[in-house]
């Protein structure tokens, strides 16, 4: 309920006989006291101030979200650009690799021969027939077929990981030839698995796994 502050409370008092002067005086005092209490009251916050405060908070909130969204959009755009650049580089490498593979039928033939040799050696070791395995492998890793295989491996290898698999393959192949020559069944089995695994991983890395039969 709103209360009005009166500038002159006397004008709103009824005219009373002089005999009631004391009563009139008391009534004036009461009215003025109420007037003073109302006029001296000052609200801590008005509706207008509250509205301005809420509007300011909302504006700051919207501005903050807009900045965050803008930054997120910039980061996302940068990531998209990096991803597209990587895709382009990978595609270029694949095309270059495919071109090399397509024009290197002789080297692919060396690797296909290796697949057949490993298959025969694996079958012989499974039957514990190391003499048959030795006839395929030879007595050492200086054999002509080993040299040809390495020339093909090196030609198709570009990354450090691919070259690392070549080293693993040659190390395992050397152990295989040595174990077969020594008639070491268990050693031959272990070395054969390591050789075959390294070669298969290399063909996967280079994409030649789809070009060679028997893998």
TrEMBL record:
Pfam family, one: MPH2
Single GO biological process annotation from the record: photosystem II repair
Signal peptide bounds: none
Occurrences of domain Maintenance of Photosystem II under High light 2 C-terminal (ranges): 110-215
Tree of life domain: Eukaryota
Alphabetical list of InterPro entries matching this protein: MPH2 (IPR038862), MPH2_C (IPR049072)
Protein name, UniProt field: Maintenance of Photosystem II under High light 2 C-terminal domain-containing protein
Organism: Solanum bulbocastanum (Wild potato)
């Amino acid at each position: 309920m709103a209360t009005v502050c009166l500038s002159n409370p006397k004008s709103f008092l009824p005219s009373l006989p002089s005999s009631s002067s004391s009563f009139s005086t008391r009534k004036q005092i009461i009215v003025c006291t109420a007037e003073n209490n109302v006029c001296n009251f000052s609200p801590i916050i008005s509706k207008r101030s509250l509205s301005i405060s809420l509007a300011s908070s909302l504006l700051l909130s919207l501005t903050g979200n807009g900045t965050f969204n803008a930054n997120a959009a910039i980061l996302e755009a940068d990531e998209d650009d990096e991803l597209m650049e990587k895709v382009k580089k990978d595609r270029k490498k694949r095309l270059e690799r495919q071109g090399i593979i397509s024009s290197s039928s002789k080297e692919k033939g060396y690797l296909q021969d290796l697949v057949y040799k490993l298959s025969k050696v694996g079958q012989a070791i499974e039957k514990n027939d190391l003499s048959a395995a030795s006839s395929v492998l030879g007595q050492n890793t200086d054999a002509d077929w080993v040299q040809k295989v390495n020339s093909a491996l090196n030609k198709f290898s570009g990354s450090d990981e691919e070259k690392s698999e070549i080293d693993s393959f040659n190390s395992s192949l050397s152990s295989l030839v040595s174990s077969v020559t020594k008639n070491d069944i268990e050693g031959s089995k272990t070395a054969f698995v390591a050789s075959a695994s390294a070669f298969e991983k290399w063909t996967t890395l280079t994409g030649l796994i789809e070009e060679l039969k028997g893998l």
